[in-house]
């Protein structure tokens, strides 16, 4: 340690001599000659948390627009394991962690698919591994290891030379280039991860090599990342609510004794265990060539693939059918405030087949994966008073989703087919399968394999682009640069689905594929549920291979066949579509820099031609919908120096956001087994907004700031999700999510941040964002019921709808300490509840979320550091709930727990 300090002091003296010699006019070569006899001259490098914090603030401080930035000094040194999680430290940004990792980012209350993510300024194709994920425009950050990113910028205000498409903000990810690093730089990072739910230890590593010639005219950089991760998630899941306010009758009820529910109750509640083996591998290759001082070119290739084999097991009790059947049933229960709080559902000899009250789903997704790929050629040429820049490339994101679905149905006449539904206070619904536990651990004929299909779904998101920018440097008063450009893009989103299934399959009995005992080899599913309000459960795990063989052992169907038969790889027209977009944009922008005043003003013109191709849901015939729109998008960014360390900012712009691909598709993604799904709407309009920002920033030290920004977005044609019940191709879907334009609304908010690093190594930051979203109203059909709860008609009523994914309050709090030997940091992240979708019984929300993370690193040498990290220390779960529209009563819903993650690893640099 003393030697290290001495070396740093010595290097500091040498650097001071060099600087002093330069200022006094003494030749640097002479100074170097005097010091070379002692040692080679070295430049002091400020590293660690303070260096990154200073660089981040410098980018924010000297930007013309309203920008936040995060940088990574070395590979493996990004603040978080996932880029989205690092973004969540920035004021105004919240993220979704549905499967434990950050997936999409919400910026200033705007949901992920209405923001924009670019890599080195250009689009990046994205994919989804989950078959139930609808195609969106937002980048799935699960695809990208943080080691592949050198830094990022978040543009919260718009400017004319940035791609349009973002309502909340634009995230620009930057990759490394060989000219930025010393020649023959080698960086390597390795670590292991442990999850306390899966109780498995998973490895990962990343490496980078960068070379450039002595003249720095040619360089090559290559990096590789590899990660394994075992994901295990426990969920207490609801499948939609019914109640006396909507007087629904289960669509499967055909007998006259069917009746509406007398208290709000879920259609079903599931005890689910999700298990996934992830394998992510990424490559990044960058070649730079600068044959002379005026010309520089860059060829960049990036690829990332995540294999995501997974299985989801879900034992489902259907309490709604326990109420719907009013025959000689032994079911008993209690109702309070028109909410069912207890219900005992029993299998009895008189229960008809349509009232099957238990199901058991296992969905095997072997071979599922998603990937992204970028090929980009960029160049710039310096002219005497101008600069020409071009960029041409292609990107694609792909998803290969396998979905082997199996479903067992209970024999409703079996006296062992029992469960108890509990919902204390109406907010904690769960199924207790204890009364059925003996046979669930050793099944025979209580359940039958009566639902099965094998499905393959392929998606592709592809964009080809070409862009030219011309900067003309002038001295027109405060105007220093006039910049103009043109960009053309051809983008397409495609989804194709095929399915192998059985015709004439009965749910139970001789017409099914057989009893549970035929498909059980002794394996069990054990769900602890210690983190949710569900009851711990243990039930049989059927053998995948036996069920797969049973499906394909059934003979192929022939024309008019009325007995059990198989249809193989049938094209699913209702779920297949293609969206084509041709986008052209022109812009002109002036950058100005005067006495204490700088910024830019610009105008962007964009025109979009789109075609939504799909198939009619009834006839299966091809259908096509055309769309065309154009917009003028002005923007202004101004930064005024009130003092040397104080900046006043103002920004104003008009922005355009296009609907997500699946939202425009004449298609549906259905999950009939849970009576749920989503549908597109080709008639959607893009949303536009006029937005304004006013901010004040005080930089009271080189790595310290206090800032406050007020923002406002006046939004037209905003898009929200509505959940309805609808019959599609003879199947009743009780929860069909559909997008609609919701008129006009506004988002107003305030961001506050403070950051300070003291000379003693301690530092910290706090940022808080308040977001207020105005509601809009729409007219919709509402059922009219008689005194007995029967639907007798419909009427139009005004309904309030809200902007989704917007938390009113969010904040981040972090503290850290750093010296020459080690650093430690602690981060706490919070977001309040937010609206998800409008459902028939009321609005659906996600509850507040908080997460605490910690990191410790120790510098073994100047080139080797050890690190330990813990994520989600507070063991946060996410929970969805409903607010009943008739009386604002809270109805509990889905809860999921992903567990804590722990990392130990090392970084090397040579």
Written account of the structure:
With 910 residues, this protein is mainly beta. The protein has two domains: 2-44; 50-909, Maltoporin, Chain A (Beta Barrel), CATH 2.40.170. It is built from eight helices and 49 strands. The strands form eight sheets. The chain has a 28-stranded antiparallel β-sheet that branches. A hairpin with a 2-residue loop joins strand 33 and strand 34.
Q: Strand percentage, roughly?
A: over 45%
Question: Which bin fits the share of residues in helices?
Answer: under 10%
How many distinct folded domains? 2
Q: How many angstroms does the end-to-end distance come to? A: 20 Å
Major sheet: 28 strands, antiparallel
CATH topology call of the largest domain: Maltoporin, Chain A
Radius of gyration: 30 Å
CATH C-level category of the largest domain: Mainly Beta
Summed up:
The protein is mainly beta and 910 residues long. 8% of the residues lie in helices and 56% in strands.
Q: Which helices and strands occur, and which strands form pairs?
A:
Blueprint: H1 2-24, H2 28-36, H3 49-62, E1 67-71, H4 83-87, E2 93-95, E3 105-107, E4 116-119, E5 122-123, E6 151-155, E7 170-174, E8 185-195, E9 200-212, E10 218-238, E11 241-242, E12 265-266, E13 269-289, E14 295-317, H5 319-324, E15 332-336, E16 339-345, E17 358-364, E18 369-383, E19 386-410, E20 419-422, E21 430-432, H6 437-440, E22 447-476, E23 479-503, E24 520-527, E25 537-542, H7 544-553, E26 565-571, E27 577-593, E28 597-615, E29 622-643, E30 646-657, H8 661-664, E31 668-671, E32 676-679, E33 687-701, E34 704-716, E35 719-728, E36 731-741, E37 744-757, E38 762-773, E39 776-785, E40 791-801, E41 809-818, E42 822-831, E43 834-838, E44 842-846, E45 849-859, E46 864-871, E47 877-884, E48 890-897, E49 901-909
Parallel strand pairs: 4-7, 32-36
Antiparallel strand pairs: 1-6, 2-3, 4-5, 6-7, 8-9, 8-49, 9-10, 10-13, 10-48, 11-12, 13-14, 14-17, 14-18, 15-16, 16-20, 17-19, 18-19, 19-22, 20-21, 22-23, 23-26, 23-27, 24-25, 27-28, 28-29, 29-30, 30-33, 31-32, 33-34, 34-37, 35-36, 37-38, 38-41, 39-40, 41-42, 42-45, 43-44, 44-47, 45-46, 46-49, ...
């Amino acid at each position: 340690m003393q030697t290290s300090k001495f070396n740093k002091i010595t290097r500091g003296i040498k650097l001071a001599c060099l600087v002093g010699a330069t200022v006094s006019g003494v030749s640097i070569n002479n100074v170097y000659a005097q010091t070379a006899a002692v040692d080679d001259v070295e430049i002091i490098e400020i590293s660690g948390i303070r260096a990154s914090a200073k660089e981040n603030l410098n980018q924010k401080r000297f930007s013309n627009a309203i920008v936040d930035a995060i940088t990574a000094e070395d590979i493996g040194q990004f603040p978080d394991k996932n880029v989205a999680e690092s973004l969540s430290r920035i004021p105004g940004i919240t993220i979704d962690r549905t499967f434990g990792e950050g997936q999409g980012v919400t910026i200033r209350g705007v949901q992920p698919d209405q923001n924009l993510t670019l890599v080195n300024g250009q689009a990046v194709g994205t994919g989804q591994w989950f078959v139930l994920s609808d195609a969106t425009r937002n980048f799935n950050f699960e695809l990208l290891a943080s080691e592949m990113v050198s830094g990022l910028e978040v543009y919260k205000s718009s400017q004319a030379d940035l791609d349009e498409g973002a309502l909340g903000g634009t995230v620009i990810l930057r990759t490394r280039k060989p000219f930025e690093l010393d020649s023959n730089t080698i960086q390597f990072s390795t670590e292991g991860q442990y999850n306390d739910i899966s109780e498995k230890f998973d490895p990962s590593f990343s490496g980078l090599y960068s070379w450039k010639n002595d003249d720095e005219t040619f360089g090559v950089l290559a990096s590789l990342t590899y990660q394994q991760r075992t994901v295990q998630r426990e969920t207490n899941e609801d499948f939609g609510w019914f109640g006396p306010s909507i007087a629904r009758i289960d669509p499967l009820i055909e007998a006259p004794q069917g009746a509406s529910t007398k208290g709000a109750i879920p259609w079903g509640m599931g005890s689910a265990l999700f298990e996934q083996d992830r394998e992510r591998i990424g490559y990044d290759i960058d070649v730079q060539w600068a044959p002379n001082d005026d010309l520089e070119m860059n060829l960049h290739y990036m690829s990332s693939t995540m294999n995501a084999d997974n299985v989801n097991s879900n034992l489902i009790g259907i309490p709604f059918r326990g109420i719907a059947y009013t025959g000689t049933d032994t079911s008993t229960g209690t109702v309070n405030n028109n909410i069912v709080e207890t219900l005992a559902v029993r299998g009895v000899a008189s229960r008809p087949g349509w009232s099957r009250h238990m199901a058991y789903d296992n969905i095997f997704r072997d071979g599922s994966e998603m990937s992204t790929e970028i090929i980009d050629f960029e160049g710039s040429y310096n002219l005497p008073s101008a600069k020409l820049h071009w960029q041409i490339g292609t990107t694609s994101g792909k998803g290969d989703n396998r979905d082997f679905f199996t479903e067992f149905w209970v024999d409703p006449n079996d006296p062992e087919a029992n469960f108890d539904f509990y919902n204390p206070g109406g907010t904690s619904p769960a199924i207790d399968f204890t009364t059925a536990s003996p046979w669930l651990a050793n099944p025979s004929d209580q359940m039958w394999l009566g639902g099965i299909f094998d499905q393959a779904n392929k998606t592709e998101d592809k964009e080809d682009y070409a862009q030219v920018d011309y900067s003309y440097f002038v001295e027109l008063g405060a105007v220093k640069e006039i910049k103009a450009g043109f960009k053309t893009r051809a983008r397409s989103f495609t989804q194709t689905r095929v399915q192998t299934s059985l015709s004439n399959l009965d749910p139970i009995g001789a017409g099914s594929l057989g009893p549970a005992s035929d498909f059980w080899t002794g394996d069990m599913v054990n769900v602890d549920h210690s983190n949710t309000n569900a009851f711990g459960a243990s039930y049989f795990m059927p053998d995948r291979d036996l069920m797969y063989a049973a499906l394909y052992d059934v003979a192929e169907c022939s024309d008019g066949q009325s007995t059990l038969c198989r249809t193989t790889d049938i094209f699913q027209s209702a779920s297949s579509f293609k969206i084509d977009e041709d986008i052209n944009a022109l812009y002109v922008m002036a950058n100005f820099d005067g006495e204490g005043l700088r910024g830019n003003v610009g105008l962007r013109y964009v025109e979009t031609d789109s075609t939504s191709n799909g198939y009619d849901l009834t006839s299966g015939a091809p259908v096509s919908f055309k769309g065309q729109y154009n917009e003028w998008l002005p923007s202004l960014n101004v930064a005024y120096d009130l003092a040397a360390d104080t900046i006043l900012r103002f920004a104003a712009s008009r922005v355009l956001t296009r609907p997500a691909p699946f939202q425009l598709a004449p298609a549906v993604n259905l999950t009939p087994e849970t009576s749920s799904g989503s549908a597109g709407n080709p008639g959607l309009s893009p949303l536009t907004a006029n937005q304004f920002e006013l901010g004040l920033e005080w930089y009271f030290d080189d790595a310290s700031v206090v800032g406050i920004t007020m923002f406002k977005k006046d939004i037209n044609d905003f898009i929200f999700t509505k959940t309805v019940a609808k019959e599609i191709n003879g199947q009743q879907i009780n929860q069909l999510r559909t997008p609609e334009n919701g008129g006009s609304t506004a988002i107003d908010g305030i961001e506050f941040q403070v950051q300070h690093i003291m000379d003693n190594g301690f530092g910290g930051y706090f940022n808080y964002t308040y977001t207020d979203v105005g509601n809009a109203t729409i007219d919709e059909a509402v059922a009219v019921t008689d005194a007995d709860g029967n639907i007798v008609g419909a009427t139009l009523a005004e309904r309030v709808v809200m902007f989704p994914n917007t938390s009113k309050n969010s904040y981040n709090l972090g503290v850290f300490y750093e010296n020459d030997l080690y650093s430690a940091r602690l981060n706490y992240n919070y977001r309040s509840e937010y609206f998800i979708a409008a459902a028939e019984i009321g609005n659906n929300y996600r509850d507040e979320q908080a997460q605490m993370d910690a990191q410790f690193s120790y510098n073994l040498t100047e080139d080797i550091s050890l690190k330990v990290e813990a994520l989600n220390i507070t063991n946060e779960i996410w929970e969805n709930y409903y607010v009943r529209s008739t009386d604002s009563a809270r109805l509990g819903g889905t809860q999921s727990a992903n567990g804590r993650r722990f990392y130990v690893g090392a970084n090397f640099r040579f």
